[in-house]
Amino acid sequence: MTGKLEGKVAVVTGGSAGIGLAAAKRFAEEGAFVFITGRRQVELDAAVKEIGRSAAAVRADAASTADLARLFETVRAAKGRIDVLYANAGIYEFTPFGSITEEAYDKMFNVNVKGVLFTVQQAVPLMADGGSIILTGSVAGSKGFEAGTVYGATDEFGARAIENKVHVHDLHATILWLLGFVSGYTMGGLIHILLVVAIIIVLVRVISGEKP
Fold it and tell me: Which of 27, 63, 79, 168 sits at 20 to 30 Å (Cα–Cα) from 130?
C-alpha cells in the first residue's frame, strides 16, 4: 500500500528526539525520505537507526547559519529538492523576570527566532512547488506563564511572523500550536503521548492535502 508521502523528501530540524523524532518516523512510514538534524551525533545515530533506511542525519545547530547552509547543501546534493520542511528545533528555559540573563536571552532568541527564520529562508530555494513548511509554535506566545517571559517572546516573534511571509513557489505554511506545560500539571506522560500522536496525525494530513 502506497503511503501518503511516497517519494517525498522531508527535512526535520530537531529530529533526534521528542516530537521531531516522532514526526520523522511517521514521515518515513508514509514513504518519505527524511533528513533529521540535531546537535549531538550519538542521538542522531540512534534516531536514524530507529527511523530506518529512509533517513539520514546531518549534525547541525539551528542557531548557526553555516550549519544550516551545510544542511541544505547536503539535501540538494543528495535529493535535489524538499517537499516537506518541519522547522521543529527549539529550546526553552524558564527564568523569573528579574533574574533573566543576557546569555539566556540570546540562547533562546538565537535558536527559536534566528534559527527558524534562517531555516525557512535557506530552505525555500529547494522547496518543490506545492511543498509544505511546518513550524512548531506554542501557546506560550499568547498566554502568560510564570518564568516564561523570554520563551513566550521568541514564540511570538518566530513562528507567527514567518508564517505570514511565505508566499512563494505555491508553498503552504502551517504552525502547529502546542499546548505547552500540560503534561507537567495533569496526567504527566500519558497526556504528552496523546498530544504527540495527535500532532503527528495532523502533520501527515496537512502535508497530504487532507483537512485536519
Answer: 63
List the catalytic residue out of 86, 92, 105, 151. 151
Give pTM, 2 decimals.
0.77
CATH number of the domain at 193, please.
3.40.50.720
pLDDT attached to residue 49: 97
**Within a domain: residue 142?**
yes
* Domain region containing 78: 9-207
Q: Please report the pLDDT score of residue 58 as a whole number.
A: 98
Let me know if 92 is a catalytic residue.
no
Exposure class string for 86-122: b at 16+ Cβ within 10 A, else e: bbbbbebeebeeeeeeeeebebbbbbbbbbbbbbbeb
The answer as to whether 117 is a domain residue is yes
Contacts of 1 by beta carbon, 8 Å cutoff, 6+ apart = none
Considering its fold, how many domains does the chain have in total?
Answer: 1
Residue 1 lies inside a defined structural domain of this protein: no
Per residue in 146-164, is it b (16+ CB within 10 Å) or e — as a string?
Answer: eebbbbbbbbbbbbeebbe
The mean pLDDT of 146-174, rounded to a whole number, is 54
